[in-house]
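Predict the 3D structure for this chain.
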Amino acid sequence: MDQLSGFDFIALNFDDDGKPTSAAAQATLLQHVATAGTTDVVLMAHGFRNDEREALHLYRDFFENVHAHLSRAELKDQLASRKFAIGGIFWPSKSFSEGGGGGGASDGGSVQGLGDADDELDATRAQLKRMRDDLVPPAQQGVVTKALALLDQLEDDPDKQNEFVALMLSLVEESESDPTEGLAELKAQDGADLLAKLGTPIILPTSQESADGGVMSVGGGGGTSDEGRPLFIGGFFKSVGGRVGQFLNMTTWYMMKNRSGTVGAVGVAPVVRALKSAHPNVRVHLVGHSLGGRCMAACIKALSAAPQVRPDSVSLLEAAFSHYGFSANNGKGSAGFFRDVVAKRTVRGPFISTYSYQDTVVGVAYAVSSRLAGDNVKAIGDKDDQYGGIGRNGTQRTDEARTQPLHKVGEPYAFAADVVHNLDGSGGGIKNHGDVTNDRVTYAVAWAIAGT
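Done. Predicted structure below.
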């Protein structure tokens, strides 16, 4: 067993379909728990990471801070005597690009676009080739090749645009439809209409004070989104190529969302079941960052099915899925995709979920989803948007949820059972999407573990 930040550690690798790439790793974890006096197993899933090295860096920093909290005066009685083992989940994810094809995001009043049309098209062509060669499985690479052949024919040809968009959306396969994520609405529209919607920037407020219920005007001075300036997503593009680049970002986003859910349900859930079957007294804690949060939500949903297995604590950190994911009703009569998690009380102990208005990665993804789904231009990306994200807005329309600030280190928590505790890190507690290894976030996770 390897060591990571003072803990016993093992890597658990999964492929695109959620299958373990090494059956020996799970067997090693089970054997270690049986022989090492392990009392707690923490399984953590990464999100937007290009490779295993970056994910391992996340785990190292995160658990270094967790380890430092174990001996704190207010936690040592519950945690100091426990013996932990860490399972790092590694799955083949790709970063959600905020650039590519001119379809990026910029801070503080700068609007992209108005560049050279040939440059926009060349950037999009390179983006498509990367998707074909590095992202899609071999069986789907021919689809991207067909889309590449259409790229030079898209300008001023709605039929070709429709064909191109249909090809790319065919790559996004869902085993179960999630009505709170907007994919069905996208697929129901003509491709030309979708691309037209990406012709002008999307204005995303980055502070609650600046979200006044209306679309903010383009302009303003310098500054950064961390200072509450609006974030301009996309730009005024001279060609369809720039708009296609942003559309490809969203195609990648939906593909990775589906893949993370598959890994959670098909890959991680059986690991939890095996642990609880072989060692029923060992506590199992699930932690997920970004799309790793969706991975863990899908894992718990799978564990809700009979025979139910209950993880002892769950910590979702800037999770990248719908803020209606746990809702009984999203306002349009549909339950959240992960409703069973709370309805069936699958989490035995503390259940926490961090969010921050400064999480512009989740904000960007859901702002673009909202623009394309055509639902709510007045409150785009915020808590009132039909297609907002949990990592930016917290859990919405969920009776079982309670919201409180993310505490400073040293301030105790009182986590209740059967409640999703929204921890608001806006205003400095969580400065951006990746700011989840800091002492305040890891302190909250340590409290969740201590409550078991």
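The first helix runs from residue 23 to 35.
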